[in-house]
Amino acid sequence: MKILNTRRRQKVKDLEELKEELQLDEHAITLEELYERLQTDPVMLIVGTVLIIAVVLTGLFQYYQESRSSQVMESFKKLVPAQACVIRDGMKHMVDVSEVCMGDIVEVNIGNRVPVDLRIISAARFKVDNSSLTGESKPQSRYNEISTDNPIEARNLAFFSSNVV
Fold first, then answer.
1. Largest CA distance in the chain
2. Where is coiled-coil annotated (predicted)?
3. Class of domain 83-164
């Protein structure tokens, strides 16, 4: 019982000492006195606070933009066709787009997306919608004849991810 009372008295004494420390004049001074003691200017405190807020807001905005960019990149993956119909050794095969290689003959039909950049070797009333690439709103006809050396203007090329209409 005596041990408990002495411990309790010690805790009360420690608490009283802590209260006295908190009532020291450093904790009860005005802001002007604090600025004078620390030899600082209140304007610098405001500038520092504004800078911290600007850095935090910039970080939040950058995080938001990065997350939106990630969502857009994920949506682009949905636009890419997973498989393509290729003719190898005279036989049609469905292969992953990543397995299409130079020399493969790729067959595309109306409604398909062009799985890779293609050189047209045979076409009948073949049109592609390049609006996602060039911004042109009208579908463009494609032929198997070389029209120009400039690949963007060439009528015998169909570009990856354009729609066949």
1. 108
2. 1-32
3. mainly beta
The sign of the CA dihedral 80, 86, 92, 94 is: negative
Confidence label for 62 from pLDDT (cuts 50, 70 and 90): very high
Block residue for tokens 């969502």: 71
- Give backbone dihedrals phi and psi of 64, rounded to 5 degrees, phi first: -60, -45
Question: Is residue 129 within 8 Å of residue 99, measured between CB atoms?
Answer: no
- Give the rounded percent of residues in the chain with a pLDDT score beyond 70: 90
What single-letter amino acid sits at 3? I
Q: Are 132 and 155 in contact (CB under 8 A)?
A: no
Instruction: Return the structure tokens found at 108.
Output: 């595309």
Compute the mean pLDDT over every residue in the chain, rounded to the nearest whole number: 83
* Cα first-last separation, the chain: 95
The answer to whether residues 108 and 114 touch, using CB atoms and an 8 Å cutoff, is: yes
- The whole-angstrom distance between residue 22's C-alpha and the CA centroid of its chain comes to 50
The Cα-based distances of 109 to 43, 62, 105, 115 in angstroms read 70, 42, 13, 11
Q: Which residues contact 106 (CB under 8 A, 6 or more apart)?
A: 84, 85, 86, 87, 100, 115, 116, 118
